[in-house]
Design brief:
The protein is an alpha+beta fold. It folds into two domains: about 100 residues, Topoisomerase I, Chain A, domain 4 (Orthogonal Bundle), CATH 1.10.132; about 70 residues, 2-Layer Sandwich (Gyrase A, domain 2). Helix content is about 60%, strand content about 15%. A hairpin with a 2-residue loop joins strand 5 and strand 6. Helix 1 runs antiparallel to helix 3. The longest helix has about 40 residues. It starts with a helix and ends with a helix. About 25% of the residues are buried. It is found in: Cytoplasm. Pfam families: RRF.
């Protein structure tokens, strides 16, 4: 393993952390409707829990309404029940084959809770990024200890890893700030 391998592996893991954060932030509810909100809901499909996206088409009707179109006739009631029982506080309404999920306006208190949740997700991503930095620096130190790299290489590699870490943490801060602004927008 070389320093370049360590650097590229660390960068790939940091990108994964950023992607995971984007996924987590997409699930946090804002005032507007977002089909990703329903990704965590599982529906009972012939005795086994299945993600909602595998038994229905989830899309937006307008800025405050999500539509759920079941692929099978008999699934409507089960999907409606699963959405109602989720912890999202949503109340779906059935209109023939189509299920409409209106997004209720959020109270100020609920908005503050959601921003705290977004900050916590951001902080978890930062911790993961810092842990990746620590692991990469330890791997570089091990190379120096095993005489596979010089101390000058170590200093250079640690500086590059630190720059990479700073860049990803700034990106995390940017994502969290954008999500907070989205949540607080009335």
């Amino acid at each position: 393993m070389t320093i370049a391998d360590i650097r590229s592996g660390t960068e790939a893991k940091m990108k994964q952390t950023l992607t995971a954060l984007q996924g987590h932030l997409a699930k946090i509810r804002t005032g507007r409707a977002n089909p990703a909100l329903l990704d965590s809901i599982h529906v009972d499909y012939y005795g086994s829990p299945v993600p909602l996206s595998q038994v229905a088409n989830v899309s937006l009707l307008d800025a405050r309404t999500i539509s759920v179109q079941p692929w099978e006739k008999g699934m409507g009631a089960k999907i409606e029940k699963a959405i109602r029982e989720s912890d999202l506080g949503l109340n779906p309404a059935s209109m023939g084959d189509l299920i409409r999920v209106p997004m209720p306006p959020m109270s100020e208190e609920r908005r503050k809770e959601m921003t705290k949740l977004a900050r916590n997700e951001g902080e978890s991503a930062k911790v993961a990024t810092r842990n990746l930095r620590r692991d990469a620096n330890e791997a570089v130190k091990k190379l120096v200890k095993d005489k596979a790299a010089s101390e000058d290489d170590q200093k250079r590699a640690e500086a590059e890893i630190q720059k990479m870490t700073d860049r990803y943490i700034a990106e995390i801060d940017k994502l969290v700030a954008a999500k907070e602004a989205d949540i607080l927008a009335v």
